[in-house]
């Protein structure tokens, strides 16, 4: 599917699945570094309740790590140029922001991962979904860092035309309440590098991992239009105090830093003082772009 078709599908259906959208050295580097962050499937299933494995047992969200991530390669995957291109095309602007990002691992049998169909807007914005202008929609992406078959708990998504007219609340429905949602859901299964991009007003759900002694690894990132200032989940000012933040910033490109709210060169914020002190805070960062006007 080309970029134009992907944008059309997302705007029409509220989601698009792009099998193997990311590949190459960036994906391989992220997959390599997973071993430094999470137990392998074999390590976890050898002792699910032992040592560091215990945190993943009994809690479907126990495997989440918020950005910044422990290695630069894992952080780089959420600012991959193909993800930026997709977000820019969906919102029809380069003026976009990243407002949340997480790593997530799930191990078969560790917890129940079966969810009801729900929308994410309730913990992304204090407002309600709007269909009148695409600027007010949040763009979420799951990036599979391992192969995800139907047995590995892929996200299932319901096309927006199926859910048209549903009120703002309740934000979730059981199968018994809206069987049509479950009958019309689409699977986000795909090989490593697959991207499942959906809107915060799109009904979706996690599904159970049934493959024995297995694991599912993913990265999650949320983009928004810069004008959509009321949508957000993570405060980068707060997260910038974490030790893994500086290594990411110091190797990031100017374009990538703009996604996190760094003002562009020429912005009134930038003076000789602020650019110099930026270099003090991030000694490894090339600050020369901000000296240019």
> Overall pLDDT, averaged?
96
Largest sheet: 6 strands, antiparallel
Summarize the helix and strand pattern as letters: HEHHEHHEEEEHEHEEEEHHHHH
Low-confidence blocks of residues: none
Helix content: 25-40%
Question: Which word captures the global form?
Answer: globular
Say how many strands there are. 11
Which sequence of strands runs across the widest sheet?
1-9-5-11-3-2
Tell me what portion of residues adopts beta-strand conformation: 15-25%
Q: Which structural class matches the secondary elements? A: alpha+beta
Put simply, the count of helices is 12
Radius of gyration: 20 Å
Kindly report how far apart the N and C termini lie: 39 Å
Describe what this molecule looks like in 3D.
By secondary structure, this protein is of the alpha+beta class. It is 28% helix and 17% strand. The chain has 12 helices and 11 strands. The chain has helices spanning 3-13, 25-34, 41-46, 72-77, 81-91, 160-163, 179-183, 236-239, 245-251, 254-258, 272-281, 288-291; strands at 15-18, 64-66, 96-107, 117-118, 139-144, 156-157, 172-173, 186-187, 195-199, 204-205, 215-225. A 6-stranded antiparallel sheet has the order 1-9-5-11-3-2. Strands 8-6-10 form a 3-stranded antiparallel sheet, with no helix packed on it. The chain has a two-stranded antiparallel ribbon with strand order 4-7. Helix 1 (3-13) crosses helix 5 (81-91). It is globular. It starts with a helix and ends with a helix. The mean pLDDT is 96.
